[in-house]
Amino acid sequence: MIDFHVHLYTADDLPINAGELPYRLPEPFPVKTYLDSLIEAGYKPDLVNNVHLSILDNSENIFRSFDELKCLQAEHPQRYGGIEMIGTILADPDYATIERLSHPQIKGIRLVLHDVCPESITPHTYSGDDWQALYARLRRDQHIHIYAQEPEANLRVLKQIPADRAVVIDHLGTCRPERGPQDRFYQALLEEARSRGNVWFKGPGYRTANTAEQTAPFTLEIIKRLGHNRLLLECTDAPHVGTDRDGQAYAALFTPVSVLQFARSLADITARENHISEQALLNAACADIINPQDPKEHTNMNKVHVEEFTFTVNYTDGSEQLEASRFIPENPDMSLPPVVFNSGYTGGVSMYGQLMGNALAARGYIVTTYDVSGFFSNRTVRNTFLKDDKLLTNVSLEDQTTELLALIEVAREHTGRMPIVISWAMGSVASLAAVNRLAAAGGEQIPLYVPMSYTRLRNLQNLRADAAGADEALFALAEDDAIPIFDTGTEETKLGYYPLDPNTQAYVHEQLGNYTHAGGADDWPGLQFVTARSYQSYVKFDPESEINAAKGSYPPALIIHGANNSLHMPKESQRLFEAYPDQEGNSLWIVEAMEHGQQLAADDPIFRKLIDGIDGHYRSLS
Fold first, then answer.
1. CATH 3.20.20.140-classified regions of the chain
2. Residue 370 contacts by C-beta under 8 Å, 6 or more apart in sequence?
3. Among the ranges given (83-97, 160-174, 340-354), the one the predictor scored with the smallest mean pLDDT
4. DSSP letter for each residue of 354-414
């Protein structure tokens, strides 16, 4: 989850003289109080936007909140780690200086008009030379946030803002629910927003109307006129200052948690009417607001050249040449290390490899990936043989560890630097073994380790209907006996190699099949049968139990897992985070609304968030 609108401040930030405030002086609301209220209720935000509080004459509290969160994360990394904070400061030409706007966490400025009379806003109120200079100081990733209760006031201000500046309009553009969405000024506001193409309407919506049902006509009208990607509802607006139109204090009606529930109810009503996902309305627009793509830059960044090559792997019983792919940006950022990506069971270049390769190369990284031996382009190199007219594949995590170490060395030789290693699912188990071996060797270590959807493979077997019975039967087989590639819960597949939960079964064949068809590879999963030895060896393969900081130096780890993953459970990554050697830069990131691989698609907002998060985490270390 995210909270795109909250006000965080301490007692020292509040004004001494509260006599002329538009509402009662609120209680202090520091970062720790706010986060603890969410975390203890089961909500941990990935992103928090600390927005300028209208009763303050500056936004210094926002800059102090950045430091407060940093201290909390240093003291309690597991509790507060993985939370990113940004800020939206006071929109004032004298206050919003280039020095303040240059802070990387400042993502916007806020114009506060409250219930100002629209007629008091002249055509020049926000378009004079001083305001034009302020607009020109904004970075491309900084927006202008307008808060006015009257839709006509929002419209008058919007028309004075340069057309190339992104705008976020507070409280769905109106706090006048009695007029309805067909109000002529509300319709004019939506039309102006539609014609500009860079205006978003933000919730949570309780200041528009006190119930989700009463607010829904406005969100439905926004989608009808602008599309669902112009709506962002996941906000708390805590600590809920002011009163509603009946004089009831919002703080008596709402808490941060109840507002999040309000936003989800509103998203659910709106999504069902439009046959779209609730998540698309809650926070999918966030990335477009705070990390917009410049069309020219986007074109240049995505000129990625793919170079095919072979590399040598020295196994314990001989050497082989494996094929690999290198994704090279037209203008690589040589300040960045290279990246090596290895995928999970049946994974390879034509699936998640090309996806990660293109996305990270677009950001300046040189990315290398490959198909593990026995699969796709390396199908006939090793670990594949015929028995009784059946084509069998031996899946060897020992081999995959050796292959990954060889590829890390290839990347180091190619660029002169050790690579970041990013791994998916079962590939994260092989890469953990590789990290252990690099630590034990005592040589140069990788700069960052990013396991995604990690699981201890013995624990994965708990998905089976009869895990103990299957284990006993599989160990009774000869090593070269054929077994099904998956256990999908049927009698025919109960001795399959890899158990799948129903949620994962529902998407794998269509999504991964599309990837391999597009890549010109064998149809996914690229094999027919697996050896019993594959099972017998992989349930014993447990590099997590071999983690030993005393044996050598470990890299910082960004451990990523989907909160809704029902195949590889989030607790697996949580346990890995606790077992991993304590390093500056370690972080556990449980990604809200992410499942197993369902969101791994180039245009999915969660996938874009993953790429932004990995890139941002490395840059924060350097």
1. 2-290
2. 311, 322, 323, 324, 325, 342, 348, 349, 353, 377, 378, 403, 407
3. 340-354
4. HHHHHHHHTTT--EEEEPPTTSGGGTTTSSEEEETTEEEE---HHHHHHHHHHHHHHHHHH
Mean pLDDT along residues 435-452? 96
On whether the CB atoms of residues 375 and 393 are closer than 8 A, the answer is: yes
Q: Tell whether omega for the bond before 256 is within 30 degrees of 0, i.e. cis.
A: no
Q: Tell me which of 3.30.1330.30, 1.20.58.760, 1.10.510.10, 3.40.50.1820 is the CATH number of domain 305-462+502-516+535-621.
A: 3.40.50.1820
DSSP secondary structure code for residue 1 in this structure? -
**How far is the C-alpha of 190 from the C-alpha of 622, rounded, in Å?**
43
Distance, in Å, from the CA atom of 429 to the CA atom of 158, rounded to the nearest integer, reads: 52
Report angle CA 397, 400, 402 to the nearest 5 degrees.
115
One-letter amino acid identity for 81?
Answer: G
DSSP-derived letter for residue 294 is: P
Count CB-CB contacts under 10 A for residue 511.
Answer: 15
Cα 118–124–130 angle (5° rounding)?
A: 125
Contact 431, 445 (CB under 8 A): no
What stretches of 45-150 show up as alpha helix (H) in DSSP? 60-75, 77-80, 98-101, 129-137
Q: Which amino acid is at 2?
A: I
Cα within 13 Å of Cα(361), Cβ side = 26
* Span 326-349, pLDDT tens digits: 999 988 888 899 999 999 886 667
pTM, two decimals, is: 0.56
CB 271 within 8 A of CB 280: yes
DSSP SS3 for 84: strand
Q: What are phi and psi of 6, to 5 degrees?
A: -145, 155
What CATH architecture does domain 2-290 belong to?
Alpha-Beta Barrel (3.20)
Give 514-569 pLDDT, tens digit per residue.
444 444 444 456 668 999 999 999 999 999 999 998 889 999 999 999 998 988 99
- What are the strands, taking DSSP E only, across 297-342? 304-315, 318-329, 339-342
User: Around Cβ 54, how many Cβ atoms within 10 Å?
Assistant: 17
Q: What are 29's strand-pairing partners?
A: 9
In angstroms, rounded to a whole number, what is the distance separating the alpha carbons of residues 486 and 86? 44
How is residue 319 annotated by DSSP?
E
Kindly give, in sequence order, each residue whose CB lies less than 8 Å from that of residue 468, ignoring residues fewer than 6 positions away: none
CA distance to 491, 497, 498, 520, 537, per residue, from 378 (Å): 32, 20, 21, 14, 21
Beta-bridge mates of residue 328: 305
Chain region(s) in the chain for CATH 3.40.50.1820? 305-462+502-516+535-621
Are 172 and 199 in contact by the 8 Å Cβ rule? The answer is no
Tell me the three state secondary structure of residue 278.
Answer: helix
**Averaged confidence pLDDT in the chain:** 90
Largest Cα–Cα separation, the chain: 89
